[in-house]
Amino acid sequence: MRNFNALNLAREALRGHKGWGQQWRNPEPKKQYDIIIVGAGGHGLGTAYYLAKEHGLKNIAVLEKGWLGGGNTGRNTTIIRSNYLYDESAGLYDHAVKLWEGLTHELNYNVMFSQRGVMMLAHSVSDVQLAQRHIHANRLNGVDNEWLTPQQAKDFCPPINISKDSRYPVLGAALQRRGGVARHDAVAWGYARQASAMGVDIIQNCEVTGINRAPSGEVTGVETTKGTIGAKQVGVVAAGHTSVLMEMAGIQMPLESFPLQALVSEPVKPVFPCVVMSNAVHAYISQSDKGELVIGGGTDSYVSYSQTGSMHMLQETLDSIIELYPMFNRMKMLRTWGGVVDVTPDRSPIIGMTPVKGLYVNCGWGTGGFKATPGSANVFAHTIAKDEPHKINAGFTLDRFRNGRLIDEAAAAAVAH
Amino acid sequence: MLLINCPYCEDDRPELEFANAGEAHIHRPKDMADMSDEAFEAMFFIRDNPKGVILERWRHAHGCGRFFNAVRHTVSDKFLKTYMAGEPRPSDDEITELMK
Predict the structure, then answer these.
(1) What sign does the dihedral A347-A348-A353-A359 (CA atoms) show?
(2) So what's the ipTM on this one?
(3) Touching check for A306 and chain B: CB below 8 Å?
(4) Do A306 and B74 touch (CB under 8 A)?
(5) Does the pLDDT at position A167 exceed 90?
């Protein structure tokens, strides 16, 4: 791997950029690893990276049934924020934001993290009260969040319609200035490149079809479409397919997999300076560096692995977008797509141990996993390396649905997020 | 948009008229306070999340208003069968037959 720096860039410019080489190796699987991570999305690749970087473990494979970063890592709307209500969530998501702030330098790969601010709109008295409560809770947890009047919101984001006659009048907004967006593919590629350079084998087109266990119960490896691969520890980071994989180890998960759709418009000149979300209306929007408006909404209502969803969900989302930003009412939409998101009953993730020795799971990120990528990967690597949770993910256990210690962000936000 | 056959209205209607109501055939005991934590978790939180055939409830919210059950494949999203609430769960053999 060659570092990206001014000297190498100048050298490569003089010889037609022929010397960069491949960014990661493409090895055949070995017979045995110490640790196998199932799923080469941002969370999985990041886990392998932190295992190698912070815990000195090198004999690691990341198995991916498709191509690297081709699941929800490549399908989300790239929004990053940490303004969650509960202490556990604030701790986890803000850990991620702090890592995002240094990630480009750490990975020597431009993840294009842009802290352009995430603004959440309030449209009713109860929205205002909820937003104020969030702001106070966030500030007590050291997470920046501030209240804007409708005019201040308009000044921060000029395209917004703050007319009192609007169908969804803007009564104010909560703004997290440290929030923003990043380039989703670059996150997967950056982690893959560094992990591979430290000796991690990233094996694509290798679907896990079974989880092998010893008679005494502990994990001994996995069955794959490229044969049996042994491992002492297996971490499942497979988003929408987590239920399917955990079933192979006899564990039923408190998860449901729903379609989540998003869409982008035709590219236009810079017009939208930040990220704006609305929980009540449930539409969110930002503008990519290419100029496309990136738009997302809520999940479809039924369990599906089809990676598509119903047309009316997109229509509802766009109805809201046009009402809030009338200037976009003649924009053409360029592409729509769907992903499979794994949703927990309390809308908080599960990161930790399982009843099976040597098997760990990181799942349940629902509709908002991208923002947590570095934080999730960092604490999951700690959990696997030490065989116990990091204090940041100590509350995000699988057994909280048995002992009742929920982290109920579902109730806090009133929508999946 | 899914086309869903309401077994009460006996008609294919667009998904817009319906509300999904989660997994079907979950038995909710009358004496929940007496349940063990494990049994409560299994009843309340653990859900069938198959990549394949799912048995689920729908409500014809903007139609007759009634709940019914459906057999659907979660990869193709194709409905294999809908049947009225209270009818028995289709047997594995019947589901295999429906998938042909």
Answers:
(1) positive
(2) 0.95
(3) yes
(4) yes
(5) no
